Amino acid sequence: MNSSALIRWFEREARALPWRREDVTAWQILMSEIMLQQTPVARVAPVWEQWVQRWPVPSAMAASSQAEVLRAWGKLGYPRRALRLHECARVLAAEHGDSVPTDVDVLLGLPGIGAYTARAVACFAYGQRVPVVDINVRRVIARSVHGTAEPGNPSTTRDLADAEQLLPRTRARAAVFSAALMELGATVCTARTPDCARCPLDDCAWVLAGRPEHAGPPRKVQKFVGTDRQVRGRLMDVLRESRGPVERVRLDQVWLTDTGQRDRALHSLLVDGLVEQTEDGLFALAGEG
Predict the structure, then answer these.
(1) Are 43 and 76 a contacting pair, CB within 8 Å?
(2) CB–CB of 180/172 below 8 Å?
(3) Residues near 217 by Cβ (< 8 Å), separated by ≥ 6?
(4) Which residues are in the HhH-GPD domain (predicted)?
(5) Which are the catalytic amino acids?
(6) Mean pLDDT of 203-208
(7) Which of 21, 140, 144, 219 could pair with 185 as two cysteines, CB 3.0-4.6 Å apart?
(8) Residues near 222 by Cβ (< 8 Å), separated by ≥ 6?
């Protein structure tokens, strides 16, 4: 892969995402990375801007309640991420001097921080030479290096080794290259409609092979309508919009088509710690019960 060509393309074409501004801190980049997991950029950006103003440092978030963070999370989806980020803020404020560590292994020890997020923060916040692999990176590598239309099943060891081999030797170029690789997969080398005419890589193995079709089973499209996730979201909407515990009947009204599914969704929210039940049987967001 021609890393120089990719970096030059990135310097010209990179989106002006708010968390790429020069004044953004490691904590603010960490918030963006948590929000961006399974959530499109367009939905994340306005919420992230609000969070940067409200919680510019971990201690500011740590001083807020779980319910406040869950309300501010809004409709970004997968709200357990918000609870884990709140927990992470408390640890950073209490044990790390209100700052985000630079070391990947230390980052991995924080609540809610997995392999991808730890490396993303080390790379994008601190410019470290570490491989950063998400689905976009896996797709670009699968096509440009291995000549396949789609990446295979995720493998942390293999995927990191693939990305590591491509990194430029110098630390500064490696960090930019990692961002460029991800950007290419997000905007040009997309899953459904890759725009090969705009790709800066003239040595893509997939294109040189004639863009062969994916040999495996078709990708499953994750549906949302009618799923437990949709029901959980509606239940959370009621609690976010209230300013205190609500009666069960308020929650029952959000999903009448399948009461068993509604009950299952509510139970899962209780198990996940997103919702609490008071002694008198009311329901509230975490921390308000």
Answers:
(1) yes
(2) no
(3) none
(4) 35-187
(5) 33
(6) 94
(7) 140
(8) none
